[in-house]
Specification:
The structure is a single chain. By secondary structure, this protein is an alpha/beta fold. It has two domains: about 110 residues, 3-Layer(aba) Sandwich (D-Maltodextrin-Binding Protein, domain 2), CATH 3.40.190.10; about 110 residues, Periplasmic binding protein-like II (D-Maltodextrin-Binding Protein, domain 2, 3-Layer(aba) Sandwich). It is about 30% helix and about 25% strand. The protein is built from eight helices and nine strands. Strands 1, 2, 3, 4, 5, 6, 7, 8 and 9 form a nine-stranded mixed beta sheet that branches. Helix 5 links the parallel strand 5 and strand 6. Helix 2 crosses helix 8. It is globular, with a radius of gyration of 23 Å.
């Protein structure tokens, strides 16, 4: 009986000392993503959808993201320097030479926003000839747009992102600004911009209009500097995203054909 009691104590002791999955030390990954600001220069919180995505991946992989929100150009530079993760990068040929990418996080349209009093017809990039278009520095609006920037049309770079960018439209420093939004109804984006931008319209008319056709539609991803010794985390993140969508824990990726 004493021997059995001794063995039972050993088993119990081992069970107590063995770290469970939830008790194991979580590996922390720096995660850079774009900072957005309102008209008062105050940082806008991350969207509920993105926060839920990060929480889901953390729980699935037993990791922790150290989220660092900075201007996008700095985010890219930091990720290249320290090997941290990026959240929200679209794929281009140039970027693929430096980064590996996860399964798509979401898709967004790159829409043109103009003052309603200065709106214009847009069907193709040639319609932007001679115009000045505001974009967030170091972002891609699609490879065709990027190739024609400062050739067919001029681009004005914005360091920050968010609703404050629209001030350049108000002061007529740009003809239009690229706005990164969902791929659905542009009217929804238009209503949100006019609601959130604190500017009194004249005669109750809307200040900003979103043109009906996006310049491009892209998918956004987690990305990481190419490093075969460390890139396994991107594969694990991709697997978690696929699993989450399959089980209905993450929203599906709906893109137009």
């Amino acid at each position: 009986m004493q021997f059995k009691h001794f063995v039972s104590l050993l088993i119990l002791s081992a069970a107590i000392q063995a770290p469970s999955r939830t008790c194991q030390a979580q590996e922390v990954y720096p995660l850079y993503t774009i900072a957005e600001f309102d008209t008062h220069g105050k940082e806008v919180p991350m969207s509920k959808t993105n926060l839920q995505l990060l929480s889901y991946i953390e729980n699935q992989l037993n990791i922790k993201f150290d989220v660092r929100r900075v201007p996008w150009k700095r985010a890219i530079e930091n990720a290249l320097n320290d090997g941290g993760l990026l959240m929200g990068m679209s794929i281009t040929k140039e970027r693929s030479q430096k980064f590996v990418f996860s399964e798509a996080i979401n898709g967004n349209g790159n829409w043109l926003v103009a003052l309603c009093e200065r709106t214009f017809k847009y069907e193709k990039l040639d319609d932007l000839k001679g115009k000045t278009i505001g974009i967030v520095s170091s972002t891609s609006v699609g490879e065709e747009f990027d190739a024609k920037a400062n050739q067919l049309f001029k681009v004005e770079h914005d360091t920050g992102a968010g609703i404050a960018r629209l001030q350049k439209l108000v002061f007529k420093r740009v003809d239009a600004a690229i706005w990164y939004g969902n791929v659905g109804n542009p009217k929804e984006i238009e209503d949100t911009l006019n609601k959130n931008y604190e500017l009194k319209s004249i005669g109750g008319k809307q200040t900003f209009c979103v043109l009906s056709k996006p310049v491009s539609i892209v998918t956004n991803h987690f990305a990481m500097r190419i490093d075969p010794q460390k890139n396994q985390i991107i594969q694990k993140i991709s697997a978690a995203i696929i699993k989450g969508r399959k089980e209905g824990m993450l929203p599906t990726l709906n893109l137009p054909n």
